[in-house]
Write a structure and sequence with these properties.
The protein has about 270 residues and is α/β, with parallel strands linked by helices. It has one domain: Rossmann fold. Helices cover about 40% and strands about 25% of the residues. The chain has helices at about 1-10, 25, 35-40, 45-50, 70-75, 90-95, 130-140, 155-170, 190-200, 220-225, 230-235, 235-255; strands at about 60-65, 80-85, 100-105, 115-120, 140-155, 205-220, 260-270. The chain has a seven-stranded mixed β-sheet with strand order 3-2-1-4-5-7-6, sandwiched between helices. Helix 8 packs antiparallel against helix 12. The longest helix is centred in the last third of the chain and has 19 residues, at about 235-255. The model is unreliable at about 1-15 (pLDDT under 50).
């Protein structure tokens, strides 16, 4: 066990992105806007759920389930799903969708039975990597699957030009690593694969897939979604108010009333030995 932990440490857990789980204020910042989060966040493509269900459906865990976006898709495909969510406010919204949700950090959760699928959509970076992969292996039956996936956002050059100009003036830090502005690093899945390989005692060689989807949002709906992302939510009130006002004006003037958002859902998956 100690050797395995050292291998995890040596893999990449000291990368800044892998330290996010320590920032509990940021990790639990979503609950204050749980209803807005549920109403505005993008979903995931049907092709992803079909791929996860291609062999068979069974018992699934949705880690960091939030308001149940992934859990609902799995349930509709025939999975028996339990969500694990640290924030009671997010869990309450998920339960309103008739989902079974345990309020707990995944690292602390001890189920009585094993599962066929452990998955996390846009949430695995809130899990302690020194614990999460091993605990996923403990939760899974042999042959079960771990699947970690992320939506990355892509926009037209004209839209990106608006974002760049406004962010440079109002919130330059968001030019570096912010999901809704399309500036987040796309290498989550590469890091996930490194981590899975570092615990190959429990998991087979990881598999990587990319699924494409998209939607057209009004400027107002896009702005509403943006404040459900922690980098925007955690700005001070004055900065956030001015930023959103400038974005509203610039987007409306330069690209019209709608934003075409293209998503890549990047998946790292591995079978439990």
């Amino acid at each position: 066990m100690a050797a395995a932990v050292r291998r995890v440490e040596n893999a990449c857990v000291h990368d800044e992105d892998r330290e996010l789980f320590r920032d509990r204020r940021r990790a639990e910042s979503f609950g204050s806007a749980a209803a807005l989060y549920d109403a505005t966040r993008p979903s995931y493509p049907n092709e992803l759920i079909e791929w996860l269900s291609s062999t068979a459906t069974g018992r699934a865990v949705d880690v960091g389930c939030g308001t149940g976006r992934v859990a609902r898709l799995l349930a509709a495909a025939g999975w028996r799903v339990v969500g694990v969510e640290a924030d009671e406010r997010m869990a309450a919204v998920a339960r309103s969708h008739r989902l079974d949700v345990v309020v707990s950090r995944f690292e602390d959760w001890r189920p009585e039975d094993h599962f066929d699928l452990v998955c996390a959509g846009q949430a695995w970076h809130w899990i302690d990597p020194q614990v999460g992969y091993e605990h996923a292996a403990e939760v899974l039956r042999p042959g079960g699957r771990l699947a970690v996936f992320w939506n990355t956002y892509h926009y037209s050059p004209a839209t990106m030009a608006v974002f760049t100009a406004v962010l440079q003036e109002r919130a330059p830090d968001l030019l570096i690593d912010s999901v809704p502005f399309g500036t987040a690093s796309p290498d989550h899945s590469d890091l996930d694969a490194q981590m899975v390989r570092s615990v190959d005692r429990w998991f087979e060689e990881p598999e990587f897939r990319v699924f494409h989807h998209g939607r057209v949002q009004s400027v107002e709906d896009w702005l509403a979604e943006s404040v459900t992302h922690s980098p925007v939510a955690m700005l001070d009130d004055d900065t956030r108010t001015v930023l959103l006002a400038d974005l509203r004006t610039a987007l409306s003037e330069r690209i019209g009333g709608q934003i075409d958002v293209r998503y890549e859902t990047r998946v790292t998956s591995a079978r439990r030995r």
